[in-house]
Amino acid sequence: MNLKRVLPSLAFSFLATAEAFAQQASKLSVPGSAVTASTYDVTNNAIPANAVDEELSTRWAGKDDGAHITFDLGTPQSVHFIKIAWYQGNNRTTVFDVLAGASTSGPWTALLNRRISSGTTTQLETYDFADTNARYIRIVGHGNSSGNGWNSITETELWGQTGTVDQVAAPTFSPPPGTYSSAQTVILGSTTAGASIRYTTDGSTPTVTTGILYTGPLTLRTTATLKAIAYQSSLSPSPVQTGTYVIGAGSLDPSAPPSGNFDLSHWKITLPDASEVSASTLSRGYELEDTFYTDPVTGGMVFRCPNIADTTSNSNYSRTELREMLAPSGSASAPANNWVMSTSSSSAKAAAGGVDGTLRATLTVDHVSTTGESGKIGRVIVGQIHGPDSEPIRLYFHKRPSDSRGAIYFAHDTPSNSTTYYPIIGEPNQLNPSNGVLLGETWSYEIKVVGQSMTVKVTPQGRAAVTKTFTLESGYNNASMYFKAGVYNQNNTGSASDYVQATFYSVTHTHP
């Protein structure tokens, strides 16, 4: 509401009588619990709630330039003007701003800038501004004319029209969420003119300030849950729209065993009791309840392993993990069952089952351990290259219970078993990275070896790939190597019921 429309004679005054405004607006409800401040005077108990307690004998006080108090209306409302009563307002003036926003994290719109109180009254003074739709109103103080630096308010009232303001139309998805056999290019839209859209594919919920700003069609190559919100400065944001795209489901049958959806003819599996299941048995529909099975919704291949279980020789940790077998009928140690780098000798390459290699997988890490020794909690290996006595790479997902996101990094052993850790998205000493991967979020990895060059690529769904290139030591020439994929639990402490779990939506190994 514009002051000039109501009281033309006060065109040069920003102070008006409450009665004139009250004819066209009503007082908006703001409980004390909905008022917060950047600071307050503890000595005099000048808490934020005092600014709405309808008592001119109490006050909120915040010292220094920029101290602010914020009022939460609960939902976006149409706000027309504000009334403020100033402590000692009859003998000093206060400089202040009034801001409006949809979120306390911003952005904020200035409704009043460097306004000055009258200095003549301790009663409510009314300040008009253009009608605005906002959930949060903030008063920012810039000190008073006495020079003591305090910003002190005895009472505040917000006036406007009750009830939520018009809302932006919810985002639309085209094509609609559903099951598709191949990657889909999704277009987001809103029927509200001028609306912007933010979205996520990592399981988090977008807001008007968080998530990815939509600028054009996005391509979903693996199963993902898409969440989007539309917003426009003069309207209330839309509800968050959610839809799941199941990609590649045409080849994944939730009713089939893992071998019905994946080629397991050149893999064997090691189970938590340290037993092994051969490639031939795996390929005939093998499943093990709560350990190795098909997800009944997505058709993904589920690997689950408890913290406390048996281990294979030379290991301290249990696993539910595939082991590559290039000649599955032979001994695992036979050269034909393994591969070598192309920088190996001619005789080693001739005897090997493959030369160089690439392991690719798309997965979600669904659960990590939450009990046990602090340094072991939340660690799981989901992909490896294994050599005779050491591992050129172990790919880790690591999330502690207090972390919101998991880190992804790899360990490299030299041929003499000296281990170094390398960051991809976070690292052992930098857990919970802001760009980390959520539990249940789809991501892909590729481990590729050509000669002594190893490339590791990690791609969270809907985000750019992170690629690391590494030179393997010449000591790995002629060494028999093999890929591993699944879950290798890196916590052997804690509760017997604790476990790790991952679901694979694709896993391939090739040797050109």
Protein model, in words:
It is built from 5 helices and 33 strands. With 512 residues, it is mainly beta. It has 3 domains: 159 residues, Galactose-binding domain-like (Jelly Rolls, Sandwich), CATH 2.60.120.260; 79 residues, Immunoglobulin-like; 259 residues, Jelly Rolls. Strands 1, 2, 3, 4, 5, 6, 7 and 8 form an 8-stranded antiparallel beta sheet that branches. The protein has an 8-stranded antiparallel beta sheet with strand order 18-17-21-32-25-26-27-28. The protein has a 7-stranded antiparallel beta sheet with strand order 19-20-33-24-29-30-31, with no helix packed on it. A hairpin with an 8-residue loop joins strand 26 and strand 27. The N and C termini lie far apart (72 Å). The N terminus is likely disordered.
Layout of secondary structure:
Blueprint: H1 3-6, H2 18-22, E1 26-27, E2 35-37, E3 60-63, E4 68-86, E5 94-101, E6 108-116, E7 125-144, E8 150-161, E9 172-174, E10 178-180, E11 184-189, E12 196-200, E13 212-213, E14 218-220, E15 224-231, E16 241-247, H3 258-261, E17 267-270, E18 276-277, H4 279-282, E19 292-294, E20 301-306, E21 319-324, E22 339-340, H5 346-351, E23 354-355, E24 357-367, E25 379-386, E26 393-398, E27 407-413, E28 419-425, E29 442-450, E30 453-460, E31 466-471, E32 482-489, E33 499-510
Parallel strand pairs: 10-16, 22-23
Antiparallel strand pairs: 1-8, 2-4, 3-8, 4-7, 4-8, 5-6, 5-7, 9-11, 11-14, 12-13, 12-15, 15-16, 17-18, 17-21, 19-20, 20-33, 21-32, 24-29, 24-33, 25-26, 25-32, 26-27, 27-28, 29-30, 30-31
